[in-house]
Amino acid sequence: SAAAIYLTRPDGLLFLAATLVTLLFTRRTGHLCNKRLLQTLPLLAAPLHLAWRQSFYGEWLPNTYYAKAVGVWPESGVRYVLSFGLEYALWTLVLLLAYVLWKKKGAIAGSLKSLPGSAAVGSPIATLALLGHAAYYTLILGGDHFEYRIYMHLIPLTYLIFIGSLNAIDIKPKRALAFLGLSILLSWPIPWTHWAQTRHIQDRGQTLQLKMPVAPHFPAPLRFYATAFDQLQSWLIDHFICLRHQEHKANQLFLAQIFPPRAQGQFLPSTNHPVFFFPAIGVPSWRLPHINILDIHGLNDHLIARTPPVLGQQRMMAHERTPPPGYIECFQANVRLVAPGQVKVFPRLLTATQIADCETKRAHAP
User: How far, in Å, CA of 161 to CA of 98, rounded?
Assistant: First the structure.
C-alpha cells in the first residue's frame, strides 16, 4: 500500500517513511523475521522511481508540485478546515475526543503500553502520518482546489474514532447508537441542501466559481451556523479553493462540447510539432492525443511551473503560474478551436532546436 500511494502521489513519501520506521522498529524487536523481509520488496519501487525521475527530469518531485505549491498559505487552510468541519459537523467528534481524553487519559496511556511491539509503534506512527498529511495541506498549501479532496479519506476513519471513543467511556449500546446517529444526522443538512440547490445547474457560465448560500434554507434559529459556513465558502471560492463538485462536473461537460471526439481528434496532423496552449489539460489531451498541449498554469510544462507569480495579484489556488513573456509566441502555437467541436491545425515549421531555444531563452530571461 505504501509503495502504491507513493507511485500515485508524492504525498506517499510521508507514508513510505512511516512504513520504514515501523519496519525498522519491528525488526529490532524481533517481530519481523528474515523470511518475512521478502514481503517488503515492493517498497523498492520508491527509490527506483525516484532515481529514474531524477535522471530523466532532473527533479525529485513531479511537475504538478511545482505548478501548485507557490507559498505557505495558513490563512486559507484555516478557513478550509473550518468549512469542512462545519459542513460535516466534525465538531461533534472534537467534543467527544476532548471528553474522552479528559476522562480516560491514564487508561489510554496504559493501553498503548500494553500493545504488542509492532502495534505499539505502528498505530501512533500511522496516526501521525495521517495527521501530518492533513496538516501539511492545511497549513502549508492552504487546502485544495477540488472541494475537500484531501480530507475525504478521513471521513470513514472519523466514524471509527467516534465509535472507539464511545467504547472507551463505556456508554451503553443504545445510548452509543443514539450519539452516533445524531452525529451522522448533523452532517447531512449542509451538503444535501447545497446539492439540492445546485444539482440541476449545468451551464458553465452559471457554475464558474459557483457559490450557493445555504443559510436562506435553514430555520431562523440555526441560520447563524449556515451563515458562518457560507462566509467561509465565499472567501475560499473567490481564491479558487474548495470549488464544488457541480462546478467541475459542468466544466467537464463544457470541455467535452468544445473539443471534437477522440475518434476525430486522433487524425489531426502531428508533423512539425503542433502546439496548443490551454488552461486545462485533462479533456483536451484525451480528445487530441497527438497534439502537444501545454497547460498555461504549468501542470505539464517545466518552465511555466517554475515561473514566479505576478507580484500583487490575488492568490488563486492551482492557477497562479502563467507563461513568461513571449513564451507562447515563441512556440508559434498553431492549433486553434475554430468552432464548437472543431479544432484546426494551421501549417507552420517548428523544429526541435527552436523548441529548446524557446525553453532556454525564456528560462534565463530577466
Answer: 12
pLDDT digit string, tens, across residues 194-231? 999 999 999 999 999 999 999 999 999 999 999 999 99
Whether the predicted model's global pTM rises above the 0.85 cut: yes
How many beta carbons lie within 10 A of that of residue 236, not counting itself?
22
CA distance 340 to 345: 15
DSSP assignment of 235-255? HHHHTT-SB-HHHHHHHHHHH
Q: The C-alpha cell of 351 is what?
A: 523544429
Nearest-angstrom CA–CA distance, 122 and 297: 40
Amino acid 23: pLDDT: 85
Report the DSSP beta bridge partners of residue 253: none
Helices 189-198 and 223-238 sit at what angle, rounded to 10 degrees?
60
Q: Cell numbers at residue 120, please?
A: 505499539
Cα 30 from Cα 28, distance rounded (Å):
5
Among 73, 9, 33, 36, residue whose Cα is nearest residue 317: 73
CA triple 167-22-44, angle to 5 deg: 130
- 3-state class (DSSP) for residue 62: coil
Distance, in Å, from the CA atom of 169 to the CA atom of 184, rounded to the nearest integer, reads 20
Chain center to CA of 161: 23
The Cα–Cα gap between 305 and 366 comes to: 17
Helices (H), the chain: 2-8, 12-28, 45-57, 63-68, 74-87, 91-113, 117-135, 154-168, 173-186, 189-198, 204-207, 223-238, 245-258, 262-265, 282-287, 302-305, 327-331, 352-363
Q: Closest by alpha carbon to 316, among 208, 199, 204, 205?
A: 208
Beta bridge pairs of residue 243: 146
Polymer length in residues for the chain: 366
Lowest mean pLDDT among 141-155, 188-202, 277-291, 347-361: 347-361
Cell of 22: 515501523
Euclidean distance between CA atoms 240 and 317, whole angstroms: 5
